[in-house]
């Protein structure tokens, strides 16, 4: 392996570690917010516009549903962070997070507040901007899942 290959490998390793750290940090911090009343208010438009989540909110209440989502985010983030000593658990956390981000991206289609009204072409609102970042987080979750699975299968 030459110096270029080493540099590329080092960049890839640093990038994967940064992706993992950013993903974990996002999940832990945003999961923690789900226990705050203002965050329940913030996610309400997305929850009530999504048929499955609207039913869950009616059944369990918005505050309890937000807390369940928060617990899931904290759990997934914690599992992803466990990669050094539990790569298979980390892969599960990454795959679960990828599923969660795919679901939240569906809110772009179900939440009227995701798009600015009275525009000729579609333009994201603040809610839409909040949601569209989940494309990057979904990609990070897929990358970290593959990395953790590769490590888990070696051991």
From TrEMBL:
Keywords: Membrane, Transmembrane, Transmembrane helix. It comes from the Bacteria. GO terms for cellular component: plasma membrane. GO terms for biological process: response to hypochlorite. The keyword Iron does not apply. Coiled coil: none annotated. The chain crosses the membrane at residues 65-85, 91-109. Signal peptide: none annotated. PANTHER family: INNER MEMBRANE PROTEIN RCLC. This is DUF417 family protein. It comes from Planotetraspora kaengkrachanensis.
């Amino acid at each position: 392996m030459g110096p270029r290959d080493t540099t590329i490998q080092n960049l890839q390793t640093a990038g994967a570690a940064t992706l993992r750290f950013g993903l974990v940090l996002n999940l832990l911090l945003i999961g923690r917010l789900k226990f705050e009343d203002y965050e329940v208010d913030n996610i309400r438009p997305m929850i009530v516009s999504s048929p499955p989540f609207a039913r869950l909110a009616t059944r369990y209440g918005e505050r309890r549903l937000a807390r369940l989502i928060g617990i899931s985010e904290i759990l997934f983030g914690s599992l992803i962070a466990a990669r050094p000593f539990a790569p298979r658990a980390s892969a599960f956390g990454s795959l679960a997070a990828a599923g969660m981000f795919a679901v939240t991206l569906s809110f772009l289609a179900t939440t009227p507040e995701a798009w600015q009204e009275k525009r000729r072409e579609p333009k994201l609102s603040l809610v839409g901007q909040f949601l569209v970042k989940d494309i990057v987080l979904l990609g990070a979750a897929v990358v970290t899942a593959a990395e953790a699975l590769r490590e888990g299968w070696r051991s």
